[in-house]
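Job type: complex structure
Entries:
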Amino acid sequence: MMRTRPLKVALLGCGVVGSEVARIMTTHADDLTARIGAPVELAGVAVRRPDRVREGIDQNLVTTDATALVKRGDIDVVVEVIGGIEPARTLITTAFEHGASVVSANKALLAQDGAALHAVAGQHDKDLYYEAAVAGAIPLIRPLRESLAGDKINRVMGIVNGTTNFILDKMDSTGAGYQEALDEATALGYAEADPTADVEGFDAAAKAAILAGIAFHTRVRLDDVYREGMTEVTAADFASAREMGCTIKLLAICERAADGASVTARVHPAMIPLSHPLASVRGAYNAVFVESDAAGQLMFYGPGAGGSPTASAVLGDLVAVCRNRLNGATGPGESAYAALPVSPMGEVVTRYHISLDVADKPGVLAQVATVFAEHGVSIDTVRQSGKDGEASLVVVTHRASDAALTGTVEALRKLDTVRGVASIMRVEGE
Amino acid sequence: MMRTRPLKVALLGCGVVGSEVARIMTTHADDLTARIGAPVELAGVAVRRPDRVREGIDQNLVTTDATALVKRGDIDVVVEVIGGIEPARTLITTAFEHGASVVSANKALLAQDGAALHAVAGQHDKDLYYEAAVAGAIPLIRPLRESLAGDKINRVMGIVNGTTNFILDKMDSTGAGYQEALDEATALGYAEADPTADVEGFDAAAKAAILAGIAFHTRVRLDDVYREGMTEVTAADFASAREMGCTIKLLAICERAADGASVTARVHPAMIPLSHPLASVRGAYNAVFVESDAAGQLMFYGPGAGGSPTASAVLGDLVAVCRNRLNGATGPGESAYAALPVSPMGEVVTRYHISLDVADKPGVLAQVATVFAEHGVSIDTVRQSGKDGEASLVVVTHRASDAALTGTVEALRKLDTVRGVASIMRVEGE
């Protein structure tokens, strides 16, 4: 069974993840050979700064010409860990055209152009694998795509960004405000100097697009994902959450509508009950909850980022792609046959927690309750508190559409007795 | 890409799992066709009692002659959900010999004869898949075998039997004794009339053997797994556990030795800290914690048994095997290249919680501590309590080998001042 010609791997990018991939390919070479059925050889490493010393990597393999590397024609698998849209997209396309399969960790690119890249891979009968693009080391794409291939997935809800989970966990456990928690995350290396992609939910939205696409066999692009960051979550919100027996997480939620005819994908902060398994996901860990017809509720938990964990996912894909290549076969490609419409946020149905600053006088509650009723939003609980002429109302609703809730809030803002809408937060996980 | 000739599936067994497999094959036929690339057709159902009415199954497909069914020669995939060693083993072997691949949910058979069955599958270039054999619907075998194929797994620790977790959870939450909790589990259908396979740990041991084999690329048979049931866990043990901030779970633990040169596999009740993710696994749910070099700590959680969840796992395998068949390829077979020795229980290193009934007089603690020291078992904490001439000592040790602990306990029993060893329990998850 064992053949002697090694499979040749080209590595695009040699940062935190790439260097770890190269290191494990060396230290675990015998294991990889046994598991694949042939040796794998690092045939080239494309980098931007060739003069930087990279321990354990033969300097002769290093090149700045990534295009020439993927065009060599003798490369079996290209591992793309550059990130970003270009030049990664062109390099991956070129790799397929020159006979290589591709393993990528590039969530932004896959969320934006996954369908087009799968099409090129398919034309050339090559594999495109990207387990590392979502939730780091956690096996998630393979289980969704293969283990649950005989089931019907109705919901994928998860914490898929470690940076924001670290910040929210810190706010929850210490009572810190957003800025203070972000500063600590930055100091500890959990947040980048420019944290926008994480805290504004762009990173999580890309992952939601990828997960929704796989779960529902439907093309879901980044633009289809409703996105709300977590920069406006306050210590007061956490206090409100605690009063409800909840905490706050930034969630990516992909759902099939109740009638099964459409899907939605969204990223936003939400309250979830402390008893929900996602509530106890601490620090920079990720976890994804999956609900399906036959399997019921599953959860996958683990480190969502970092060089080693991401490299573990990349190498798992590398082994699979190499095995496919030796078999003369390819693994499952894009599956978008269901082609369900992606509904806008207005059609999402969930529960809401709304804090209002109101005038402290009789009849306010009746006025507010009337507005909810007029918009068809049913109230679950109301809590009133007030002193010194100031008063607040906290309303928790039953399930209602986002459109109905938005209409309700617009009408509330027009009431003389409502001085302000202090916060609106969705309540999930019940 | 779509071919019209359907893939033919033979179902062996039509009980709780089999009938659910048949039902989903019908209700989800279009999805299965799209995901596989060809329709799948139920070509025959072998049962013991053909006269029983099976809703949704064409009576013309039902046969009592399972052997004739697997010998037909036109069957693409045999789904074996009979359970037990024979006739399942012979039927699976015959299926391979007559050109079929096999999907099985049979943990007992795979733990005992997995290597031999893989060998026959390999000779005939056929697939043998069995995701459903361990932890029901939880994708576990595929992640271990494929997602982590580029990593080095050091530890797999899990709750892999729902019946015993239901019983222990009930004892923990209500203070009930073992028999009372078992009676409730039986009344609710969580325990079988004869619960031996579950409560004595045989079921979990079979799963441990399968998991250890895959995780360590080493043949591990049921006989290699140390097994201790949970029938002797008492309400007093739960009280002791709570005093330590722990609960008690029946765990399957597969470990690579610190030097990497050998492995162990064992099933026994153990205390684990309430802060450990496995501690919060409630009711009949299963969860498995995996530790690897690069990925770090992962956890997989979900329903561990039941018709629907098990059918979900069977159907995921069915889709994979059908795709392989259309590709003219096979998936990863047995991987036992590492062939590490499986060490006996004496070499397992862990911590222990020991309750002793002792004479209430001066010097007892010194005597007991001396015995521990003489056997090289280092004490972490001791708690002494006594009244009315009776006294008890609770000792929690640092990490020590099972052999050293056993020697210690034998010596303790010989002390005049030790009236009895009330309980010994391992402490895991730290």
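Summary: Chain A touches chain B through 58 residues (CB under 8 Å). Residues 7-136+308-327 of chain A form a domain with the Rossmann fold fold (CATH 3.40.50.720).
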